[in-house]
Amino acid sequence: MNTPGSDTIAAPATAAAPSAVGIVRISGSGAFAAADALFFPRGGAKASGAPARRAVTGEVRTNGALLDTGLLLLFPAPRSYTGEDVAELQLHGSPAVLAAVMGELARLGVRPAAPGEFTKRAFLNGRLDLAQAEAVADIITAPTEVAARAGAAMLAGARGESLRRECDELTGLLAHFTALVDYPEEDLPPADAADMARRLFAVSRRLERLQNTYEEVRLINEGLACAIIGRPNAGKSSLLNALAGADRVIVSPEPGTTRDIVEQRVTFGGALLRLQDSAGLREAGCHAEREGASRALEAANLAHAVLRVFDGSQPPDAQDEAVWNAAKGRRAFTVVNKCDLPLRFEPKGDAPVFYVSALTGEGIDRLREALSALPPRPGESEGAVLASARQADAAARAADGAACAARALTDGVTPDAVLGELEYAIGALGEVLGLNVSEEVLRQVFERFCVGK
């Protein structure tokens, strides 16, 4: 593992496109010297003499010539994002200006930062644990407000605090069993063994619950699949367009227009959903329609929720019965479309019923509101969730180690066997927090970051 701060790095922290403001971040032992060479505060003072964490105005010069005017902020170590000396130049957001500043910094010996290198240095300098560092990337790439809030809860430390509590519990038990191994003449009383087993099983259950939160976070980021099924011309494509607020799918009075799954991502109430239009369910004559109907049924089986759409202007028939049966056992919403026409359809069952008109928009807002409540929202209470497959795998191994240690205790095996399982569980938790990870794991974590963060 490289020693952080062995060189000075810099990168634009804003997008490479014309904008009102462009930021260049510099971190390392030479950050303030680089600021002295580039930035000249009004009044003639040196840039490195500016008050910490207070913006000062001045000029940016390259090769002795004025390039831009802007602000400088200094963050002395260790009270900075990276834990090193950090200087930030806030300039006008011209890509040419930012490129010229980066060129001058390179001439001064400042190296361009790799993706995620600022956050990696924050981790290596103890400003963030690895779980918090990953949360930074989660916030940057969050597709919705719900995903961003989950990432913010993680960055605030809820996940790390939860894992550290479990790690402390296991470490206390580890110390006890280490003493038993070192002094085998000291026997563990049966009552103590039963109590320790109970505590270990409790740790294992809590870690299993935490591990299961990864699936919720994955669904938040990828979006829940909502399959739209119905007989031909029930208005499935029109409904998708109405919910999406755009003409995403071709609508035609001719039955069988849609023959494949058409997916549209939409955001309702800060939550991401994947609406999937499908072929009409009927006994079709041609191969393409039969294949389309088969794919519609498959989509309904795999989806997290099903919108079964019925033509409210027509009485129910065998095709509607097939649609109803296709959603059995699934989380389903009954949508009676074409309510702008005389109603001839009577829904059955106890699923929520929504009367809408995809043509006029009547009832669409109510349906959107109901769909927005579908995705899970971890992080709103305790905020202890896992955000990556790596973290979930480590938590699962820790839970298994704690459970194996508990079973070893109840089976009356020797203390050294319990000790081995405890060390395994603690090591797995350490992988999540970054207490014992390889350089390769760090590379995989930080390579998904953008440059400048």
Helix-strand pattern:
EEHEEEEHEHHHHHEHEEHEHEEHHHH
Q: End-to-end distance, in Å?
A: 20 Å
CATH superfamily of the largest domain: P-loop containing nucleotide triphosphate hydrolases
The total domain count is 3
In CATH, the topology of the largest domain is named Rossmann fold
Which CATH class of the largest domain applies here?
Alpha Beta
Order of strands across the widest beta sheet? Answer: 3-4-5-6-2-1-7
**Can you tell me the residue ranges where pLDDT is under 50 for at least 5 consecutive residues?**
none
Total helices: the number is: 14
Secondary structure class reads: alpha/beta
Cα-atom Rg, whole angstroms?
29 Å
Architecture of the largest domain, according to CATH? Answer: 3-Layer(aba) Sandwich
This entry's quaternary arrangement is single chain
Shape: flat
Mean pLDDT: 83
Task: Report the strand count.
Answer: 13
Helix content: 40-55%
Give the biggest beta sheet: 7 strands, mixed
